[in-house]
Amino acid sequence: MKVVSLHRYPVKSMGGEAMTRATVTPRGLEGDRRWMMVREDGRFLTRRELPAMALVSAQPTEHGLRLRHRLPGVDAASELDVPVPHVEAPVLPVRVWGDEVTGHDAGPAAAAWLSALFGRAVRLVHMAEETVRPVHPDYGAADDRVSFADGFPLLITTVESIAALNARLDAPLDMARFRPNIVLEGAEAAFAEDGWRRLRIGGLTLRVVKPCTRCVITTQDVESGESTGPEPLRTLKAMGRVWQKMPVFGQNAIPDGPGAIAVGDAVEVL
């Protein structure tokens, strides 16, 4: 088995980027979901509420982040460079699901640009190195950490599993629907990942801790954000791909320490 693609999503729920190699930190791939858009009350925003977030991409730069949008009819520049907030920037209380955490405000220019895109008041925040957001204690150790991702540092999927799903669909879906970090090929069977508990990728070991429950974002076109119907959620349920009454695809994982991985790396089930 080997790594066939790597992906990170610098701003939660916005467009991501493919990588040929990545540094793995305790929070996941370096630069993955360290930024997040929030409502004025601090609650996180995603494509569940704002599907047009699919039309905004984010690329890390030397000093911060470059945002680009493809929204039609919006009176805003097509791109904006956002520096990492200074350590003395305002710290905002923010929420990701049930987690209360803090984010450094990215400033009025980013807030104004994003508010113009989405027609509502929003802010952009960044997770500083010193910010601690623990993984849920049911699945992680006391020192496990996560970024602004939904709950875990890494998401792993396999080529074999999406092939099995696509065989049941009228219109096959691209893996991008599932926003994985690490895509593997060569699993012994579709959904073999259900039985994995530990993996080794190069010199890095990962704990496979929980199936990834799936929401309406998987039913949206990755380029436009528009809904394409009930799939793949309907078929995942029909296939019995369910955990706690929710459809699942892929596995959440936690790295045992920092390291580096690359496309082509061999993967061993431990």
Q: What Rg, in angstroms, do the CA atoms define?
A: 18 Å
What order do the helices and strands follow?
A: EEEEEEEEEEHEEHEEEHEEEE
* Named CATH topology of the largest domain: M1 Pyruvate Kinase, Domain 3
Q: Give the full name of the CATH homologous superfamily of the largest domain.
A: PK beta-barrel domain-like
Which overall shape is indicated by the principal axes computed on the Cα atoms? globular
Query: CATH architecture of the largest domain, please?
Result: Beta Barrel
The class by helix and strand makeup works out as mainly beta
Tell me how many strands there are: 19
Largest sheet properties: 9 strands, mixed
Question: Based on the structure, what is the oligomeric state of the protein chains?
Answer: single chain
User: Span between N and C termini?
Assistant: 12 Å
CATH class of the largest domain: Mainly Beta
Name the poorly predicted regions.
none
What integer is the average pLDDT? 96
Q: In total, how many domains does the architecture comprise?
A: 2
**What percent of residues are in strands?**
35-45%
- Helical element count? 3
Helix proportion range: under 10%
Describe this structure in words.
With 270 residues, this protein is mainly β. It folds into 2 domains: 163 residues, PK beta-barrel domain-like (M1 Pyruvate Kinase, Domain 3, Beta Barrel); 92 residues, no CATH class. 9% of the residues lie in helices and 36% in strands. The chain contains 3 helices and 19 strands. The strands form 4 sheets. Strands 1, 2, 12, 13, 14, 15, 16, 17 and 19 form a 9-stranded mixed β-sheet that branches. A 4-stranded antiparallel β-sheet has the order 5-11-10-9. Strands 4-3-18 form a 3-stranded antiparallel β-sheet, with no helix packed on it. The mean pLDDT is 96.
